[in-house]
Amino acid sequence: MAKQDKQSGNIAEEFKTTSAKEWKSKSLRKGKEMVLPSGHTCIAARVNLMVFMKSGKIPNSLRGMIDQAMDGKEISQDEILDKLLSGDEKTLKTFEDMMKMADAVVCDCMIEPKVIPAPATEEERSDSILHVDEMDEEDRLFVFNYAVGGTRDLETFRAGQDANVERVLAIQGSGNQPVAVDAD
Description:
184 residues
């Protein structure tokens, strides 16, 4: 650790800057090994939502929600799902934007295996490449929650997902029309 001379303000000779390699070795981009709800394993890193905002990767419809999250205000999954089940067109568009952003985050944060966006055509698929749409929805949401540093513990997230995923899949499978699904 560098020492500063109190009288002169100069830093003592033992001062050494941190190299880029050392800096990166302590980075969150190294990732964390984890077991996903499907049983698949991966290494994923956290992402900085501010970087996503600055790069324009966060749709305008989500800015308010992201601002709330960055201010430490937690938005419950039940609150989001209740809005989706209301059938409000604006809320459904927001949900669609949220899923697109989640996919972008998953593509950015997955280190191993590397995940890339869905191809435009089926001919572009390969057995050696994992596309984001080939992952289970629950796995994608699990990785997304970890990547953005969700306030909940991952085990709590996993334990509470079954009913919520069932409700979301009911919405998706019905052409975005609200469907009542028991959340027991």
